[in-house]
C-alpha cells in the first residue's frame, strides 16, 4: 500500500556510550515502516528522514539531541 511520506527501513539502535544494541531489525530480517510526522518514531528520525532521498543509505549516525525527548514524536 502506497502512502505519502512513508519510509520502510532496516535499523539498529545502540547506546553511544557502550555500543550495546537495544533494538534492531537485522536479527530477524524484519522491516519497519512509518509515516513522517505521524509517530511512533523519535523526532530525530522525522528530522533526519525529511532530508533523505529514496534508496539513500544512511551511513552516518542519527543521534537524538538532548533537547528532544526519546519518547517525543512530531505529531
Automatic annotation (TrEMBL):
InterPro entries reported for this sequence: FKBP-type_PPIase (IPR050689), PPIase_dom_sf (IPR046357), PPIase_FKBP_dom (IPR001179)
UniProt keyword annotations, A-Z: Isomerase, Rotamase
Record EC number: 5.2.1.8
Transmembrane segment boundaries: none
Catalytic activity, reaction form: [protein]-peptidylproline (omega=180) = [protein]-peptidylproline (omega=0)
Domain PPIase FKBP-type: 4-54
GO MF annotations, alphabetized: peptidyl-prolyl cis-trans isomerase activity
Source species, domain of life: Eukaryota
Name of this protein: peptidylprolyl isomerase
Amino acid at each position: 500500500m502506497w502512502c505519502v511520506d512513508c519510509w520502510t527501513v532496516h535499523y539498529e539502535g545502540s547506546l553511544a556510550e557502550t555500543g550495546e544494541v537495544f533494538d534492531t531489525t537485522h536479527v530477524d530480517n524484519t522491516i519497519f515502516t512509518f509515516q513522517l510526522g505521524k509517530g511512533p518514531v523519535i523526532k530525530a528520525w522525522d528530522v533526519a528522514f525529511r532530508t533523505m532521498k529514496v534508496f539513500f543509505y544512511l551511513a552516518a549516525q542519527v543521534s537524538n539531541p538532548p533537547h528532544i525527548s526519546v519518547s517525543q514524536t512530531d505529531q
